[in-house]
Amino acid sequence: MSRRAGMTAAAALMLWSCSKAADQKVTSKAEQPANAAVNAAAPAIPPPETGPDARTPLAEPNGTIDPKSVEGAGQIVQQYGALIEQKRWAEANRLWGDSAGAAKFAAGLAQYAEVHLEIGNPGDAEGAAGSIYVTVPAIFYGDLKDGQPFRRSADVTLRRVNDVPGSSAEQRRWHIERIDWTG
User: In the chain, what is the greatest distance between 2 CA atoms, to the nearest angstrom?
Assistant: First the structure.
């Protein structure tokens, strides 16, 4: 092979390998995998599938869910997450039992440019004074307005009134009682 042919082949090989590297490189935030910002967030909170406080994401249901069950409570939290992701605050706030608490929590979320919610499996139902409570672990994540990623864990407590005479349909549905930051 002549020296010129060898240089041409080497140049072609270099261009091909650079082209392959460019194909594999993620060049913009829009092209990044969906979990890239989450994984780059503060390492203080372990990913949901690890650690002693493993929070397994809620599995998709295999059939009809009883709206009175703990899985029904989990669906309310999923619905809340979908609404806040879309910044549909008024609809999200209606999933709370207390409009003032809902407004206060929504105001706190206003500092974020983008908010997503990952939820874990609902805990066991607990009864008290004619009501049923369920706690659903959740992780709020996304980006602050300055572009910095955030990731915070929380417990979402839901409540519904037992099926007692005189209770309304509204009282017997699951609603968010409170959201407590845990991390």
Answer: 96
What's at 26, amino acid-wise?
A: V
Q: Write the single-letter amino acid at 121.
A: N
Q: What is the pTM of this model?
A: 0.66
Question: How many beta carbons lie within 10 A of that of residue 45, not counting itself?
Answer: 18
**DSSP code per residue over 99-119:** HHHHHHHHHHHTTEEEEEEEE
pLDDT given at position 97 = 95
In 3D space, the residue among 100, 108, 68 whose CA is nearest the CA of residue 177 turns out to be: 100
Return the structure tokens found at 69. 């069950």
Residues 59, 60, 63, 64: is their CA dihedral positive or negative? Answer: positive
The pLDDT tens digits for 140-171 are 999 999 999 999 999 999 999 988 888 888 89
Tokens 């994540």 sit on residue: 141
